[in-house]
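Annex B. Sample input.
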Amino acid sequence: MPSVVNLARRRLGRHLAALGLGLLLPWAAAVADEPAPQAIELAPGVYAVTGATDDATPENGGRVGNSGFLVGGEGTIVVNTGSSYAHGRRLIELAERTGGKPVVLAVLQQPLQEFVMGSAAFAERGIPVLAHAESAQLVAARCDTCLAHLQRVLGGEAMRGTRVLRPPQTVAASETRRVAGRTLRLWHPEWAATPGDLVVLDTASGVAFAGALVSVHRIPDLRDADLAGWRRALDGLEALPVRRLVPGYGPVTDLGALAAQRGYFDALERQAREQLESGASLLDAVQQAELPAYADWDLYARLHPRNLQQVYLKLEAAGVGR
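Annex B, continued. Sample output.
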């Protein structure tokens, strides 16, 4: 059984690392001391694996953001591959040990380092990796930078074996497909959080993996976003038959969580508009970027000023404040 093999490899990895021989296997030392991920069962055969909601750090081992897996009668589908080769291996092991079925597909929801950098572990096993075509292009264009960043932050040992893998399978639009005995709706809302967003909805259970489209108690990152498109995407997500929602960041929730994110977007745009109409410069606007109602959300200090700058510039280009 794959689960027996994987457990044996984990034990061997710890043993080799203890002997200083982790270099013999690229995954051995990297996974030796890291806590094993835990699966949360949301419905029969549907599991979430939650990660940290802050930036990648040595303390959280780079395990940021949420992934999950769906077990069908013919195999298992993993959603997001983690931020390193070691994380990808652990997700495969967890999924196969939990469901007793081999992983047959991985789906990437956005071209973000915490979701895509574990893909090499899947490719090594011959497991296909699928993403939206726009995500695949962005992974190829910029994830060498992601890899270098994670190597600096986490260290070479934690990132051993990690490489950039352009997803070999892509979709260009929303579609429903039968995979490993489960029916999945792969919903692409057009450009929202990123150009290549994919929501994975398991039609039998009503569990949706929303990826970076939804964050719970964490400031959304507008770096790659179209804010108007993101609002439309939240409306579209709310129209889907979703019973439980796995956000990209934060605890498992339901569609009620969308109101808080909409509230942040409204407050952000209102703040940027008020700054423009008052004649404040971009520098002044960023220095005054305070939204106390969201100050306790994760990444507020880093992301909110950057989000405000982005919205300010877009509104300025549209003629607000002239």
